[in-house]
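Re: that chain you flagged

S.,

Sorry for the slow reply, it's been a week of failed gels. I finally had a moment to sit down with the sequence you sent. For the record, here it is as I used it:
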Amino acid sequence: MDIISYNEKEFLMDGKPYEIISGAMHYFRIVPEYWLDRLTKLKACGFNTLETYIPWNLHEREEGKFDFTGILDLDKYITLAESLGLNVIIRPGPYICAEHDFGGLPSWLLKYEHLRLRSRDPLFISKLRPYLEKVFEIVKPHLCTNGGKVIMLQVENEYGSYGDDKEYLKAVKDIYTQSDIDCLLFTSDGTDPLMLSGGTIDGVLSVANFGSKPDDNFDKLKAFRPKEPTMCGEFWCGWFDHWYEEHHVRTSEETVRDLESMLKRKASFNFYMFHGGTNFGFHNGANHTGTEYQPTITSYDYSSPLSEAGDMTDTYFAVKNILEKYRGKAPEIAVKNSEKANYGVLYPKEKAFLFDNLENISEPVYSASPLTMEEMGQDFGYIYYKSEIKGGIDNQELILSGVHDRAQVFINGEKKALKERTRIDEKVILTEKNGESAKVEILLENMGRVNYGQKLFDKKGILNGVRCGYRFHFGWENRSLKMENTDKLKFEACENNFETNLPVFLKFNLNIENEPVDTFIETKNMNKGFITVNGFNIGRYFHSAGPQRTLYIPAPLLKKGENEIIVFETDICNNPCVELTDTPKL
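Prediction finished late last night. Pasting the structure tokens below so you have them in one place:
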């Protein structure tokens, strides 16, 4: 029945010694049409196990409303893995980190002011229980104890990096037990004593997460849990990128060196990531150093064995070769990289200014102070604020207190300032005299909730109000802009050499004569925004911050004939265009 157990030296599969050779691939970062391709390449590389997180924030975007369809079809993903003979490791959280918005926690939790995240707080337990029970309805038939291939489930995730509430960990484990999850359970943490002591629980296997020095880390884990086998729950074979940083690259030589150390030790491991994929839409998370907010880019390439586009890299073949050296020949399976196309340069055919279309895509909500996204019931996207400030201001600065995360300020229809959470704070001075007034409009972008550390409780919007000098201003119109209804925009013809510094949607038409293939899109003469392809949000671009220049467009998002590409640009257009190329720029 493929039941995993263990003794103090090794894992056992149906009582026989077994090494878990696992790779992480997140279904929600890969279009479903490519799931089988990516899973087949995992198998062909010599891996025997798939690992995936489950993102609570996507499966329950609104409290009590669950979605397991399309790119979120967990049952289909597990079934495909099983059809290839792959074992499966499931990590349902409730917190997953994963450089995902809010660490995979749903933003609606933040509306409960007194809720204590990731703790024994009965309110938090009451919110996570329905989610876990829904997940277990799907996972349970796939358990190895029921004839399936799911061999292990994780309890929480790297909890020792956050807290030490053992009663909380026991409460989460109890939900597993009460849901008849009877396969092997585990926790994963770094090997620092503070992490291991805080994140583990008696009677549950402990595994270690690291990206280098396997022997040192395994020795620390073995000293902490001498009667358990050694496993790396996350072997960081690469790393992720933030905006404003350089692109991270790890060489295949570095990866294979550490992999060989684990193979010589006969340890089990999970490559994080084997295939990173893409932070589609607005799903990226962020880090916070305490002084600097660091949002994650759209690409989750991760310098993995499979690239963001699913291509087999030098690291892929180096890993396959070293696995075959120590563990025998990999299965003979036909796999190949996808074809890429250079579809050329496109110019916009139509435009739609955001401020002219607010009534078409949003409803006003009125309040004394600006509302947060969470108060508006909004998880992702932008929020718009408008008010009128009457004169007698006497050269006072307009102060936005608690900008989370990037706000552009418009006075009487003109762009006046940019304010980023911990980077840019351009001043706005109001000079209206008695009898005059200033129309204030603010477009604010949620650039990703913090996904790790002590600043996890990360609301979005203007958190602490707007002031003229020391005086708070009250009376605001708020509009939620999830950007999921662009079909309601009213476009008009776009002239040649179009220029503006106002937020605008640009529509491009791409005609494909043959069957579509993968491509990459780069915006030109624009700076920041997001792109939809035939209605699917492929993610954000941010040229002045870098490092990413192109966004990945998987072929299944395209079609033969006419394709609609919409770019929402918030900063500036100066004869804008897009180029569709066959080469990524990360």
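What I noticed first: The two ends are 44 Å apart (CA to CA).

Talk soon,
D.
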